[in-house]
């Protein structure tokens, strides 16, 4: 965490040497859906995809690598008018799995406020909204965004968003459905964090609404800082149909629910060929003692932690910056740490295997806008392990 705070301080101090300028709007990033929203055509098509090769490396054992068409995504949008638009995102994962990643209607109220409703990305951190393969270094997304804020995290909801250009601020505020914590069995644990609790809008159920929001400031040239938050309770099927006067049933349902307060801070900074970014999450989870006891299986207590923490810091440099070319060649290095047992409640002991750090270093070669080739080495170690495991990754990605 101290390393992340240092890099935020550093890039803020550097960018403080630059005055606020009219071209600072270039620091207001757009993902695939937002680019389609700014298009004038009636019917809009877009997409992105990536193919991966992952090879574990070991001095003692031989291991098969995996080759995977990890995802192919089709975006379809429609402009009903200059104010009312629809965006959908259909994702095919590992050839055989199909998901709807986004499906929302947006209506422009005025220059500063848009109403949005439907299946939406939760605005936490960087990667959950900007996860197209051409927008980040490394073949795989950061591990922090797999466990703490489980990319791709989306739920059904309604809210507002906008861009106040005069103040160099983007904002989002939504009321959304929450994680599932109980559906016949407990859905959350220490190993997977919140990942198995994503409902993804697939016949999801709601027992209490949650609040999600983010503010981005891009007033300094090259710098974008984001503050995000997510607050509420998890959802449980045990709430359905219980008599409010039945204290036993109410207590049972309450034991299957946890409270969540998640805070996020992220920063992106570009100066010439230098590219810096960092991200930090802290999540407090309430009622975990009762939840772990209630969701025990076969006499074994569940192990959901009462706090999770994760961060990463990354530096890269485009060595082709001075060339008159659209291509970019970016050597980079990223350090990250996440701990789903940052704190535990009751007699539950912290599991050192849930405290992991990873170093990822490699090359990102952007052939042109929208097409990328990547290769990297990952070194991953938990606090319970004596040495790093090693994985070589390579892949290609497109976005259009």
Give the neighbour order of strands across the main sheet.
1-2-3-4-5-6-7-10-11-13-14-15-16-17-18-19
The parts where pLDDT drops under 50 for at least 5 residues are 9-25
CATH architecture: Beta Barrel
Query: What level of helicity do the residues show?
Result: 10-25%
CATH topology: Porin
- State the end-to-end CA separation: 35 Å
Radius of gyration: 22 Å
Classified in CATH, the superfamily is Porin
How many structural domains does the protein architecture include? 1
CATH class: Mainly Beta
The arrangement of helices and strands along the chain is: HHEEEEEHEEEEEEEHEEHEEEEE
Structure description:
With 400 residues, the chain is mainly beta. It has one domain (2-399): Porin. It contains five helices and 19 strands. The protein has helices spanning 2-15, 32-37, 144-147, 247-255, 288-294, and strands at 43-57, 66-79, 84-93, 97-108, 114-121, 154-164, 169-176, 180-183, 185-186, 210-217, 223-233, 235-236, 259-271, 274-286, 307-317, 328-343, 355-368, 371-382, 389-399. It has a 16-stranded antiparallel beta barrel with strand order 1-2-3-4-5-6-7-10-11-13-14-15-16-17-18-19. Strands 9-8-12 form a three-stranded mixed β-sheet, with helices on one face. The longest helix has 14 residues, at 2-15. The radius of gyration is 22 Å and the shape is globular. Mean pLDDT is 93; it is low at 9-25.
